[in-house]
Design goal:
By secondary structure, the protein is of the alpha/beta class. The chain contains 13 helices and 21 strands. α8 runs parallel beside α9. The relative contact order is 0.16. The structure holds pyridoxal-5'-phosphate.
């Protein structure tokens, strides 16, 4: 399902024109299609119909509770990386037995909260973490269900800043150390080893790195079981790539066929943790043109959204397609323009030489594939209005987070008493 299409000359999310939404909630704003999110989840659920798997949505991609709830209502669990994300998942209605707690820096307080909530599993990345989880579980008179996150030493052939499965990356337990660590985990009083976990990176669009990592993971899984530790769950991570420009994502059916062949005959519960794949293409960022300006022989389109709202281009050299909300005529004259944000940083550029009609102040554009790692990474840098978030479902839509005015952003800042009396 395509979330954003032109209808009667206007770019719409499902059936709702983005111009209608922007006129009411203001600009910039994020708009998400619930239907597109459900369709993505459904595609994977269908592909794994022969062997039902649990899809724990990686909440960090877009942690708005309405987004989590949309996916949870369609059967998804949640993959979380902090106590705060567990709180969000619970608030959104995800059953605790469908929540996985990952991340390399779990504090004792977070572990206590997760154990108290009765989550499905802790994905563990180091010996000190294992010892701490065991100690907290003992203190609470319980045992923690644990999967060890194995680093399979596979290069996911993705952007270096989103690769996690090479041995030089900071994530996971070295493959060769795993058997000894499982032995140790099994001997700890507060730990029950229940599974094996791996996640090799993000935005992966070829099947080979997955197949290679999964093969290594399954070999190890069998070895650990052979050693008498009754593992029952294989968590194969996320990282499924999406379309930003000309990428071809792996079809869910092809992905499932690869996995199902590898796990044929293996009695194990399958878990996956996609984030981006469920939400990226379901979201767009709507922004308004402040000025069109020419300087140094270039033409700039200066927008009211910048790296404060969508940091991916500045952080990862990410590409986002930009479309005018008003559909250009078929014979419209297009000009190369540098599309930039309002932030006082040279890296605040969405794209160079984008061919667009001669848009002007007040005209609006949308950045596509902005549903993942967009709103969650926004900041108050430069004190501009923050972007509202809106969820569309068919012809219904609702604000799921209002934009915040600069005044609201500093409302909880305080002048210390010794400065109050100072004349300015
Ligand atoms: C970020 C992350 C994911 C989700 O990655 P996507 O590329 O968004 O699918 C899954 N598992 C772990 C452990 C992660 O850190």
């Amino acid at each position: 399902m395509k979330a954003f299409t032109y209808r009667a000359g206007q770019l719409a999310c499902e059936t709702v024109p983005l111009a209608t939404i922007a006129a009411e909630v203001g600009s910039p704003c994020y708009v998400y299609s619930a239907g597109a999110m459900r369709a993505q989840l459904q595609a994977y659920q269908d592909a794994f119909a022969a062997r039902p798997a649990l899809f724990c949505y990686a909440v960090k991609a877009n942690s708005n509770i309405a987004v989590i709830r949309t996916l949870a209502a369609a059967g998804a669990g949640a993959d979380t990386v902090s106590g705060g994300e567990i709180e969000r998942a619970l608030a959104a209605g995800v059953p605790p037995q469908k929540i996985v707690f990952a991340g390399i820096a779990k504090s004792a307080e977070e572990i206590r909260f997760a154990l108290g909530s009765g989550i499905l599993q802790f994905n563990v990345e180091s010996v000190p973490e294992l010892l701490r989880i065991s100690a907290v579980a003992q203190e609470l008179g319980t045992t923690a269900p644990v999967a060890l996150r194995i680093n399979p030493d596979v290069d996911a052939a993705t952007h270096s800043k989103i690769s996690t499965g090479r041995k030089e990356d900071k994530f996971g337990i070295p493959y060769a150390d795993a058997p000894a660590l499982y032995g140790m985990a099994a001997s700890l009083p507060g730990i029950e080893p229940v599974g094996l976990h791996l996640h090799i990176g993000s935005q992966i669009t070829t099947i080979e790195p997955f197949a290679k990592a999964y093969r290594r993971g399954i070999d190890l899984f069998n070895e650990i079981r052979g050693a008498g530790i009754p593992l029952r769950r294989l968590d194969l991570g996320g990282g499924f790539g999406v379309r930003y420009r000309s990428e071809t994502p792996i079809p869910a059916a092809a992905f499932a066929a690869m996995v199902l062949e590898l796990v044929a005959g293996l009695d194990v519960q399958l878990v996956f943790e996609p984030g981006r794949a469920f939400v990226a293409e379901a979201g767009a960022l709507v922004s308004s043109v402040i000025y069109r300006k020419e300087s140094g022989g270039r033409r700039f389109l200066v927008l009211d959204a910048g790296m404060n709202v969508l940091i991916r281009p500045a952080l990862y050299d990410a590409y986002h397609e930009v479309l005018p909300l008003a559909e250009p005529e078929a014979d419209a004259h297009l000009e190369p323009m540098d599309v930039v944000g309002p932030i006082c940083e040279s890296s605040d550029i969405f794209g160079r030489d984008r061919y667009l009609p001669l848009l002007d102040s007040g005209d609006r554009v949308a950045f596509l594939s902005a549903g993942a790692y967009g709103a969650v990474m926004a900041s108050d840098y430069n004190s501009r209005w923050s972007a509202a978030e809106v969820l569309v479902d068919g012809d219904r839509w609702a604000v799921i987070k209002p934009g915040r005015a600069p005044g609201a952003q500093f409302a909880d800042e305080a002048i210390p008493p010794w400065l109050e009396a100072v004349r300015t």
